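Researcher: First entry.
Model:
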Amino acid sequence: MTDETVPGPRPQPLGVLPWPAGLLLMPPGSDAVAADLTQGKVPEVWPEPLAFYAAALDGDPEAAAALVGDTGPVDRYNRAVLVGGDEAWLALATETTGALRALVDTARFTMGLSDAPPDVHGLSGEIAAMARSARASAALEARDAELAAAELALAVADALAGGSPVLAASLRLSLAELLRDAGDPARSAREADAALQHLPPTADRELRAQLQMTRALSRQELAGTERGALLAVVADLTEAARVFREDTHPELFAVCNQHLALAYLVMPMSDQGDRIRVGVAVNALRAALRVYTPDTHPLAWASTQMNLANALQYLPSAHQEQHLDEAVQLYEELLAHRDPATDPIGCARILSNQGNALGHLGVFSDARDRLTRARGLFQAAGDAESASTVEDILAGLDEAAASAGRP
């Protein structure tokens, strides 16, 4: 396959706009708009020859297709992107060659109309980048994450070489997320950081926020308890949360708040300002729990609920008893969704934390019951270290009860 020039401006703003507009091709004479779009700048008023783009972005593909001309294969390609079926795409695959054929193959693969990813031989720039992105998806379907990462890295290079920085940043986001999922947070953070460093100021705010969140989550895996690294995580998540609001992006809003709280909770405390951050963490966890529920997000809900209960135990406040009582109730809700037969360690941890909170409340009998049950579960599971820790808590509980003259 040779790289026959696609009619119209180059680079084309492929992959910059949401689906389906991100696959459309611009006709000749659109150079100025194409140049703006590759930088992420969307026109407030579209020129008449590009009215089909505006309709596509408004979510009306039929109206957009009606506005497309009929002067050649590029128009037929654009109509196929908007409303075409398998027959239209097969016809295009027969009549096109070179770069346009590669885009046809990319679209067919992306839409699930073909199992074969596009060939990239002879392609360049943003067209090669789009084709390699499809090839990365094919590699992921084949569970070859290493090949997918290699294809995405080449796609980034093609997009940059072709003069399409927003497309490059979007591809880098996919690469960073893939690397983090594959257990390489250091490289993931580097890719997200590089994308942010070169992202044009006119780029979509959501893309910037997604990159900030991905960089933060990757750095958080590496930060441990290092204050400076955690503050960088907090900064990224705070900025991302300005875009991912609860009413518009509830899932991403919850992720930002959940991890913002974790960053604050593991940060070493050295002064009163640090202690205030525990309160900020508690509020962030409460915000995440407005989205996470046991039915919709069982794992995220359990983790967030546990972190909130634990944080409440140590929240500096004049209402400590109230917070401890709330923590006890939160642990009780967690226990209702855990089975000691299938998750003895998880149940034991909840019981030991609940017993500790009850002890601080002075409810010694109930505290002793929870801690004894936790010790038994740890012992049965062979976790001698945790069982020993519970023994120490029980001993301290007995001393506190004796001092208070309580059983």
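Researcher: Second entry.
Model:
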Amino acid sequence: MPAFRKFGFGALFAVLALAAGSAVPPPAAAQSVQDQLPDMGTAAQATLSLEDEYRIGRMVMRGLRDSGRVLEDPEVGEYLQSLGLRLSSLAQEGNRNFNFFVVRDPAINAFALPGGFIGVHSGLLLETDNESELAAVLAHEVAHVTQRHIARGLENQSRANLVSTAATLAAILIGAMAGGGGDATMGAISAAQNMAVQSQINFTRENEYEADRVGIGILASAGYDPNAMAGFFETMGRRTQLGPDQVPELLRTHPVTSARIAEARGRAAQIPAGEPRESLSYALMRERVRVLSTPSSRDPREYYVAVAGNEPDASLAQVYGRALAQIQSGEPAAAIPTLVRLRQQYPEILPFHTALGQAQLASGETRAALDTLERAHELAPRNVPVTVRYGEALLQAGRPKRAHEVLLDLFNAVPPTQEQIRLTAIAANAAGDVADAYSYMAEYHLMGGDLPLAINQLELALSVPNISSVQRSKFTARLKEIREWLPKERTRSERPTGGSQRPAPGG
């Protein structure tokens, strides 16, 4: 996505944090996105509500996903979400919906969007040396969310400025998804760049110090090394000595001074020392991200030839990573013996099961893959990566009914990701459960913030012949609920919505 890569996430935050009233109008394509922006209220009510923050954050997430920037991988996603929720659950005001995800970007950076969406660049994850350092970055970003720094930065702005800010953000997103073309879009991007330069930082210095203080408390409460935050920022700071081109993006968006590092170390020193927790999952998922984020122009196996050419000297995670690199490079059969051995030696480590199933499936050993993943599913029946991989194998084996059953059980038991919902819809459609497939896609679009399209999918579900009375009642109730969420639908809830893309009269 060239436009995002050009000005980085700092500019997005500059747009949100500095409502400077840019006069750049959004392109026509952005109007449908702008129509879904929250009603910011009067100047006296300018601070964003939690619901407003979530809606804006969800809109940005939709742009990131549509552009392919989000690393959609069930193993990585499950690990990062688990780690993030362990931290956020210990934060004051942390009882909100948090979503943690990896962005395909070699830059060393992380960011918090409005509404609890926290992104970590693949480059940052690979730069960390241990789980405490990764947890420190996440805890810092969690603190930005729980302390509501974005909303506080907008507190004194008027309704007009806020709407203009949101419109500019919409213009940037639409332009980025379209490849950055259009004078209006480039104008919006230019405005965002200028604001980023003027502000220099995403948040004020006071907010950065506050996020450090709160984050260190969260970090220690979760059992991680409280010194990891200062240590990681100090390591990043050394890169600045290599020249301006070597400055990590993290330091551009979260500037670190010696005073800030000293304060973080002083605060950590006040916390009783304990044995920091570390997990094998961190090391395994770090290698998984390394392989999956390798540019298509490069061979991921090259890294492992250099660092783990002699297997006895390689770490367990590096052996796993090399097997993943073989799968990724089109040699899945070469990875199977290694993964079989790893599974035998460490049967409790589920990523070894799922990687073996993937390798067998990619090698055309469908029956073996089903056996591997069915066995893993029996060990952990509602583990997300295991169930997703098992569902994929069942679909490839021509057993969509069973795939639908397995994925639906997970769908009903564990809050699903968008990719899980999409896969469940594919399984349902392949199994002939067309109405259910439409209803799942409604949830998919609802999670992405596209309410009109969610309505359209439910209407299609209701139009499927011979649906049961239970299905009809469920789809109708959900349709009514979503219509009530659309501000323009509240005044015309009795109107047919087959043309839900049309503007309301006078809109």
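Model: Note on the second entry: Residues 388 and 407 are 7 Å apart (CA to CA).
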